[in-house]
Specification:
mainly beta, two-stranded parallel sheet
């Protein structure tokens, strides 16, 4: 196992000064400026990743070598308005990626691309909103949350999130219940070196329909059920049924999940089950999780990225073809804990995966430290080691990731 010492991030500050100026008579009153209603914000990101298994660059290179590393510098600008005209709101978000010249001496690859280029941009969100009573409508390019859309959600592990072209309707007329309906017709797909400017149809012109119901009638208990329907997906209709129950009493929590991906177009349906138990023990938060996926042709898919709704997701699932392949037939166990120490949060996890595809066993260790350097600047340093047996991809992985995000 190779060892490495990782670096720091530099913060910046602003100083503002002002004073009072006495008016000269006579005072001429001017109308107060009309508030536009627009809110503006943004995020600047620097992202670096290196490994010795070829995930970030070229296989068999040493960690921190230029050939084994990938990096991106990105900026995201957002503008939202809840009432542009007659109750109609709008939101726009644009992303830009650059390398800062790091490919000339530090890295040989990037985490994400735009139209196949290492420098460029794309519009990640562009939507309209409208609400009446307890119903809201959002139409256009947007993020979808994992809690309400477990098979089509926006991932946050890479430089920028993936997004979806969709129509989303949310209603809360029923007591303690949220009903969500969506038609998802397009998306970009997050992943290592993914082209984020490439938005394609998910199911040609038919799209994918989703209905989710979430209920919180019982104290500390959240029940969520989802149904996806994709007509004529790969010749025949595709149906996904998924349920999730989480009980969170603060110092103790337990959750179960399960469901099935079904279509006559495939030989084997995919069924999966998961469970998780956790709690707080003084300053330490810990949990254990288990997932089982049967021999399904589609596996535990995610329409917009590399991860899944399973409680057992780890860093290797984000970046590695091994993780994605195993989710079609596997048993996976995870033990994880974290604590607020050293001015931030330090977390660790061990995962064991026994997968039938490629007759693979994986022992994975994750170590992550995150901290808020200032109110606006956050940093994350992560180390991943995985011992992979029985696969043609690679035998072991050492991976280091360093991320800094500045919100403004």
């Amino acid at each position: 196992m190779k060892k490495a010492l990782l670096l720091s991030v530099v913060a910046s500050s602003m100083i503002m000064a002002g004073g009072d100026i006495a008016p000269v008579e006579p005072v001429v009153e001017t109308p107060a400026p009309v508030v536009s209603g627009w809110e503006f914000s943004g995020t600047a990101t620097v992202y670096y990743q290196t490994d010795d298994a070829g995930i970030s660059g070229i296989a068999n290179a040493d960690i921190f070598d230029q050939e084994a590393s990938a990096a991106d510098a990105g900026i995201q600008l957002r503008a939202t308005n809840t009432d542009v005209f007659a109750g109609i709101g709008a939101g726009v978000e644009v992303n830009g990626l650059a390398t800062l010249g790091l490919e000339n001496w530090m890295v040989s690859n990037v985490m994400q691309t735009t139209n196949g280029n290492i420098t460029g941009g794309w519009m990640s969100q562009a939507y309209l909103t409208y609400g009446f009573g307890n119903t809201s409508i959002k139409a256009g390019r947007q993020e979808l949350p994992k809690a309400l859309s477990p098979f089509a959600f926006s991932e946050d592990w890479n430089v920028f999130k993936n997004t979806f072209d969709a129509v989303l309707v949310v209603n809360s007329d029923l007591p303690d219940t949220t009903l969500v309906g969506a038609w998802v017709y397009g998306a970009n797909v997050n992943g290592m070196h993914a082209d984020m400017a490439k938005f394609g149809q998910l199911n040609e012109h038919d799209g994918v329909f989703m209905l989710t119901a979430q209920n919180k009638s019982i104290a500390n208990l959240t029940l969520t059920g989802s149904w996806y329907y994709a007509p004529d997906y790969a010749i025949d209709d595709l149906n996904i049924l998924w349920g999730d129950a989480k009980y969170d009493a603060g110092s103790f929590n337990v959750a179960i999940q399960g469901g099935s991906i079904m279509s006559d177009a495939f030989t084997n349906d995919t069924t999966a089950f998961g469970a998780m138990v956790g709690g707080s023990f003084g300053m330490i938060n810990a949990h254990v999780a288990y997932a089982n996926v049967n021999d399904g042709d589609l596996g535990m898919l995610q329409l917009g990225g590399t991860t899944s709704a399973l409680y057992t997701e780890t860093a290797l699932d984000q970046v590695s073809p091994v993780g994605n392949a195993l989710r079609s037939d596997m048993d996976k166990f995870v033990v994880a804990a974290n604590a607020d120490v050293l001015g931030g949060n330090l977390g660790g996890a061990y995962a064991y995966t026994d997968g039938t595809p490629l007759d693979t066993e994986v022992n994975e260790f994750n170590l992550v430290y995150s901290t808020n350097i200032t109110d606006s600047l956050a940093g994350v340093v992560a180390y991943v080691y995985a011992d992979v047996d029985g696969t043609a991809y690679y035998e072991d992985v050492n991976l280091i990731r360093v991320v800094a995000k500045y919100n403004f």
